[in-house]
Amino acid sequence: MAKACNVTPHLDPKKLEPMCPTHRMTGSRGGGSPKKSDGEGLNITVTSGNSTKPKGKARAEGLEILTNASLKLKAGVHYALVGRNGTGKSSEFIAVTDHLKQNRTDLTDANGSEDQPRIELSSSLSVLEEVVDRATSRSEIQREADILSKAIDGNVDLFAPLRAFRQVQHEHLMRELFEHDKDARLRSGARGMAARKALIAFEKRVAESNERVGQKNEEIDEAILKEETNAAIDLLAELQAQLEPTRIAEIEVKARNILTGIGFPKTHFEKPVNTLSGGWQMRTNLASILLCPTDLLILDEPTNFLDLLGIIWLQKYLLSLRNSEPNPPTVIFVSHDRDFVNSICQEIIILRDKELTYFRGDLTSYEKSIEAKKLYLGRMKENQEKQKAHIQQTISQNIKHGKAAGDENKLRQAKSRQKKLDNRMGLQVSAKGGRFKLNRDFGGYNLTARAEIEVPVDEKGTNITLPPAPNLRFPGPLVSLENVNYIYPPVKPSKTKPPPTLQNINLTIYMGDRIGIIGLNGSGKSTLLKLLTETLKPTSGTITHHPRLRMGYYSQDSITDLQNLSHASPELTALSLLAKNIKDTGQEDEFTEQDIRGLLGGLGLPGRIASDIPLGKLSGGQLVRLSLALVIWREPQFLVLDEVTTHLDFSSVNALADALGTWNGAVVVVSHDRFFVRGVVEGEVRDEDGDSNDGEEDVERRRWVGICADIADLSENIGSGSTINCTNKRASSRSKLRDLALLLGGQVEIQAAEQPKPALVLPTPSKPVSLLETLPPELKSQILFSLSLADLSALVHASPAFHQCYLLNRKALLFGVLRTELGSVLIDAFAAYISEFLELQQLSYLRQVTEFLTSYEELRSTPSPLDVIQEKVSLKNAIDLVQFFSITRVLATEFANSALTYLPISTKSEPLSRTERMRILRAFYRLQICCNLFGANHRKHWDLLNSYETLNISCVDILRLFFCIFEPWEVEEIACVHAFMGKKYEQIFRSIQFDVSRDNPKFANKLARYGPLTPDGCFDFDTEDSVINLREGTISRGLRLFYKALNIKDHAHLVDLMSSNIGRCYFNFILDALERTPQHERRWHWVSDRDQAQDTNEELPFHRDSEHTPPLAWVIIWKGTYSNIYGDYIPNKLREWGYVMWDVARLVRMDAKKVLAETWAETWGHDPRIEFR
Known about the structure:
Elements: E1 36-46, H1 57-61, E2 63-74, E3 78-82, H2 89-97, H3 127-136, H4 138-153, H5 160-186, H6 189-213, H7 222-242, H8 245-261, H9 278-291, E4 296-300, H10 308-320, E5 330-334, H11 338-344, E6 347-352, E7 355-360, H12 363-405, H13 408-423, H14 438-441, E8 479-486, E9 502-509, E10 514-518, H15 525-532, E11 540-545, E12 551-554, H16 558-568, H17 574-584, H18 593-602, H19 607-611, H20 620-632, E13 638-642, H21 650-662, E14 666-670, H22 674-680, E15 685-686, E16 692-693, E17 702-706, E18 723-727, H23 731-744, E19 747-751, H24 771-774, H25 777-785, H26 789-798, H27 800-808, H28 810-822, H29 826-835, H30 845-860, H31 865-872, H32 875-899, H33 914-934, H34 955-961, H35 968-992, H36 1004-1010, H37 1024-1035, H38 1039-1047, H39 1051-1059, H40 1076-1085, H41 1089-1095, H42 1112-1117, H43 1132-1136, H44 1144-1149, H45 1152-1163
Parallel strand pairs: 3-5, 3-6, 4-5, 10-14, 10-17, 12-13, 13-14, 18-19
Antiparallel strand pairs: 1-2, 6-7, 8-9, 8-11, 15-16
Helix pairs in contact: 3-8, 3-9, 4-5, 4-7, 5-6, 5-7, 8-9, 12-13, 17-18, 21-22, 26-27, 28-32, 29-30, 29-33, 32-33, 33-35, 34-40, 35-37
């Protein structure tokens, strides 16, 4: 294997310590954290380790993974490295951690000792000791301290301290010599020559040190003896300071917290590391890596072998690193858990087509941006092809007419157009979406003056094909377990009987069954699978198999077994291994090489990957595919899969779920990948539009089997516990119950209504104790903090234990939910809440409003506004904020359902994205602020005012004080929800018009008494102006009234509500403030930076869908330049469908760009911004 790279990270090379398979690179803290790490011209090539030279040039050169790539990391940023299996993600990690700096550098020797790093912790130390020792080098420091202490305290030989000091120094030099020797062997070219010179110089130092170690006593003069003795004493004091008990105790506390977080039970802390399984050793390695401080943290699939709680803990731990002071570490990780990636990463590094590209945002945002870019460039290229065809046609016509008539002008025109066609056709915009400039956007030497339009191409979809299961010839269950018990034999002789791992298991599996087994790590899931596959024999009970059954078993250790095999036989490839496996069973006559290649290709190991790449050079995902091939080539009727999704990328998981979902055999799966399990066990499939559908046609064959484990001490492996039986066809209900069982370690079986009996029957204990009561308080709190508002409410109402935990942390939990649900919109929600309780006085009204809006604007610009809000709110405030959020959330859904019906292609059945939801929610909150400050909203004195003149405020003041706080497209968001409320209130007015009009007989007596005056509860809807006046006055009363009005179904109750709350407003504070005249007047007296950006035609390109950047619709109507006008300048037809609320993907599906263009053309024949020039 050879890997070539040219990496120049800004870190001390002496501090680079690769730790695999969860790799880590640490840098010295002494000089401060490096600001970035860069690598230019990165190349990695993988070749076979065979000594014989393969035939053909391509094979001899090997498989290129990276070509001339650039790796650039910024300090403190969390990066996710994404790419398909086999694209070289782990190879890139190894190259970076080994700090290889030149091309064509061998990473491994002929036996492949470093090709697939493995955890082999042979230490007899306990888990806790091993973690602390690896993080602090305690054992090495202690060894050196013992050498020095023995020499200094011995008082026998005066030269003993000197010799001990020289021995320790020499050992340090030998370790450095190893690094210099490695660099000299691995580098080439100019850097290789420099490394070899440095090695020769360092070898001289080592030789001198060796001579000093062997120097005789009589050759050492007294001054040197005294100097080095003092140095030995100083070094001993320094080493002892590092072993100071208080410091070690603090580190041990941190180590315990980390071990508990990633799933270690306390009883495992004292177990020797060499007695643990491979999965627990991986966790031990991860804990030691997370414990010690670092500048650059590299994690390769850290969620492997972690259960859901461990993944949630790791997710929160990595997020907490962002706030570590003074220098938060840079984190780069690979994970195929989509939720984990989206929650952790700030930027994405995409490894595709042997190149590295970068994207700021999470995985979902990246996928959306790629789709938008593909659509944008695709249409650009299509239009340009039409333009080129038209130009080519005119060229031909001009040449024809010019030659026929001898017209030189026609010929020159044809030549000019041909030059444009050859040289200036291509990408006409810059990378930022602005106007193309040749000297700025297309530097270097090129054949044309424009770059080619390159439309992003979808990666080739992963396809996994499983051979059909053969018939059994006669019916019957495949496997039957009756009263099965299993107890692991004790490691040491003991008088006490070990507890049962599994107890009284009854389970029957038929052809076509889909069964999922759930439970926390250590609860006995793998034990049950081993019993099913006869790997283990039950302690008691009966297990019966169908006589013609062929079974395939994928175990957790399959990858480790292949890695061990690759170390024993480095030349072994996937093709040769499968052929050898078939030959060993005597069936080589039934399979040709083409058949074997077809089987491997169907699982994603085609061509040279199967035949040329040794096992040791295959990625984890490719090894999973090979393990599946070794399982399914026998055409089994029953597949048992234990954590098969480990190492598989997103595309492969989807493909495997689809293949297993349509396979005709029986499947039993254990997995912590919720998407995969939903697809295989619950039968959820995705159609072309991404919607989930339940597989109701075979729901009777889909079952959940839960294994109970005491979460407080998983090592006890208690086999009994409470059982939950659920009869429900809805996959969503099954999913919620499954997720709850997975979180709480509960025992659950979910079955269809048609099945009269559960598949797994366990005895009820004599004293049933709810597992909720046994959870430690910190775990309960951790679970509650990870839930959404709806899930938090459901769990708190369902469990008294969690309700008690909720009461103890109510304020923090409610505020945490608000932070999760609203993000930065929580600032607007808090301002809306505070403004509702302002005591505005008539004489000081303008000053009070100005002071409040100034503090609101300052809060928005604060570095950590949510932390400031959290310090200010009380428990009552948090409860009120959550209650009001429940209202705005419903209104946001109503707005979306209403707005999307105005377009020819409705997408209201599609759920809102987070960006869309945040835009709508903040618009409602900001409208509420406006109503609280300037509207009628529950202020009794407001209706007594005939105008705003008594308050000394004008519509221009409202515009400059309130609306000018926001970006222009954010003002339009408010205008959209205002238009929505107006439409809804007009519908309500029409429905109650007769009930509240003067014509209603119930007002006859009052009209006779009041004469021309309108009595209370009676309103005039005769003119359009009066309707607008009443509508705007009612809107100004705020969202609570609007929410009640929308949700009252009884007509009489609606009439009562509206008759007492319809407001009269003699000044339409929103409509009037957004008219053209106030905008002109505001600009004349108060010019802002946004006005100057409009005057200078500042570019405003569309970057991506985000609540902090302009939406695509706004960028389109203003042609990618800044505009600070809104309100009356925007057609009302656009606000009806909420044009500034929607993401790119929805705009495309609704064909909204066409609607935008047509509506804008009908309203404006020119750019309305010319009125301000």
